[in-house]
Structures are given as C-alpha cells and as structure tokens.
Amino acid sequence: MRILAAMSGGVDSAVAAARAVEAGHDVVGVHLALSRAGGTLRTGSRGCCTIEDAMDARRAADRLGIPFYVWDFSERFRDDVIEDFVSEYKAGRTPNPCMRCNERIKFAALLERAVELGFDAVCTGHYASLVETPDGLELHRASDAAKDQSYVLGVLTAEQLAHTYFPLGATPSKALVRAEAESRGLSVAHKPDSHDICFIPDGDTRGWLAERVGAETGDIVDASGAVVGSHDGAHAYTVGQRRGLRLGVPAPDGKPRFVLEVRPVTNTVVVGPKDALAIGEISGERFSWAGRAPEAAELRCDVQIRAHADPVPARAEVRDGSVTVWPETPFEGVAPGQTAVLYDGTRVVGQFTIDRTVSALPAATLSAGV
C-alpha cells in the first residue's frame, strides 16, 4: 500500500512509520504545521506541533529513509479547532479539541488530501486497533489499556476507517515502543509525551480564554438561586470543578461545593454539593457511527465520557435524530460539549456530542439546594 505517515515529532508516530516501512509499504512522511506563530521550542511535555517537533519528525523520516514534507494546515486548524473551542466555551460548553482535531484535521482534511494524491491510507501513532470482520471494518481498543486512544478516535466514520492504519494497536505497552525506537536509532525514543492542549502550550487555559472570550465579573449562585460568591469570567469554570471558587458564603452542611452548571447568557456559575454532579441521562444530536450503524433503535452498551474515564454500562436509544443514554450508575460531572463514546465490549460503536444532561437527583431536591 501507499501510506502517508502523519509524523507529529513524537515517538509513537515515528515507530508507527517505521513499522509501516518494515511491513513493505511505500511510505511518505508528513508533518502538519498547525500554527503560523508556534513557539520555537517545547516546554517540558507541554504542547506539540512546534518547530522543534517538525525537526524531530524530519530526523525520524531521514533515519527511516522516507520522503518527508511539511503541510500547512494552520488556517483549517484555526477555523475548525481553535475557533470551535472558543465558540463552545462562549456557549457554556466544555469542548474536547483533540476530538475535533481528529475529526476535522487528521482524518478529514489530511485524509482527503492523501486520497486525492493516490495514497491508500494515513498511518498514525494512535493506540487503537482495526479488526476486519464479515460485517466490515471495526475500531477496537488497543491492547495497552493505559494508552488506549480509541475514545478520541470515536469520531471516525466507516469511510475514514477504511483508509487508516494503526500499527501500534497490538503493542502491549508504551515502554516497548520506546525501546523499539531506541533500537531503531530514533532520536525521539525518550522524548516526553505531550499532555496539554497543543495551541495553549503554557497550560494556562483560563488566561488564554480570557484574552479571546473576555473576563466579565458575575455571580456564583447555589441551586436555589442564592448568591454565594462572584467570579471574574464564567468561561474559566467547568462542571465538576472544586478548586478556585472563592465562595463567600459557606454551605449549610460545611461540605465543599462544586460547579454544577455554567450559564453564559446570564454570566452565572451554579454550584452545589458533590451529590448534585450525578447525571442520570445524557443526549445529543451530533452523532456518528464508527463502522456499521446499530441495527436496532435501542442497544445495550458501555459509555465513556472522557478520554481516561471508566466505561459505564448503559442503555442507549437512537430516536428522532438524537442519541439518548441512561447509565446503570450515574455519570459524575458531565458537561455539555463533552463527547460520549459508545462501546460494545472493546469495539467502538460510535459517538455523540453531549447537548443535554439530566440530574440523577429529584428536581425538588435540587431546587432546595440539597
């Protein structure tokens, strides 16, 4: 096959490209320039896609003896990922930029160009597995549960899966990938992983958003509507947050309070006890299926609401253009804008963006402030 290897400059994508070469494929490396004003150097393990990362990717490609190019996707990344991130926060939702990047950049814009240029598949260093079955291609969790990235790939469609290649899916551990990189003479063998939002490399999401959304003071209220504090910008708060609330009125029971809701229209943050974070129902209209769609309108599945959250057994229903999920045990701290990924065992069934949440507590209990 003709393979386009997306090389981020990290160890995973370098080893994935090496395995594609070793498997006998015709491989070309490409690094995506996602910012025209990126920092020259990384800071520890923060960020990715910097000039230094591009240089690391080129050195890896040279070591593998494959052609290498840098493609400027900065404008598309700005419009489809960064602007989406800002607009979601303005609307009081909590977005996942990695999901949007996979959906709109790596497996849409990049894959579209790759196919146009005659490549059969895009190779990445994601930890996930593709399984060929009589019913078609399926996306599954990786062998290494600690590194599994199937959650952030849940946005891929059947057509996109048909043109993807994940060489690391069956690797038992990241340590083995690093050891392999060292044995192949790849200079990125011990390069630290990136853990932050790539376009906020210093990790100060609150400050970054304040510059773009604005910081207007407002009230922090409890579930009954009583003012218990103030904030310098609702965008800086996320559902489930406990630290940094600076509440002037203690809870009647003396227990900590958490962010329950962000209301951008009124610039209000709602707080309450930990029990009030329990969510008994989630739903969303923006959904897609990873491979074949479910045959029935109702299905039993496991649902994961964060990249590293434990999956929760649930019942899901597809009706009237939306997906609704009822977990067997309540989710905790779910915010609109997050992505829910549905699993059947290790197989990714599909995903949806959460538009609505319903508390697991009775309405009367919530209105009383618990």
Structure description:
With 370 residues, this protein is α+β, with helices and mostly antiparallel strands. It has 3 domains: 2-183, HUPs (Rossmann fold, 3-Layer(aba) Sandwich); 215-272, SH3 type barrels (Roll); 277-366, Translation factors (Elongation Factor Tu (Ef-tu), domain 3, Beta Barrel), CATH 2.40.30. Helix content is 25%, strand content 29%. The protein contains 8 helices and 20 strands. The chain has helices spanning 11-22, 51-64, 74-90, 97-116, 158-161, 174-183, 205-213, 363-367; strands at residues 2-6, 26-33, 68-72, 121-123, 128-133, 136-141, 164-165, 218-222, 227-231, 258-263, 268-272, 278-284, 287-289, 298-304, 312-319, 322-327, 331-332, 339-344, 347-353, 356-359. The strands form 4 sheets. Strands 12, 13, 14, 15, 16, 17, 18, 19 and 20 form a 9-stranded antiparallel sheet that branches. A 5-stranded parallel sheet has the order 3-2-1-4-7, sandwiched between helices. Strand 2 (26-33), helix 2 (51-64) and strand 3 (68-72) form a beta-alpha-beta unit. Helix 1 (11-22) packs parallel to helix 2. The longest helix is centred in the first third of the chain and has 20 residues, at 97-116. The protein starts with a strand and ends with a helix. The model is unreliable at 39-47 (pLDDT under 50).
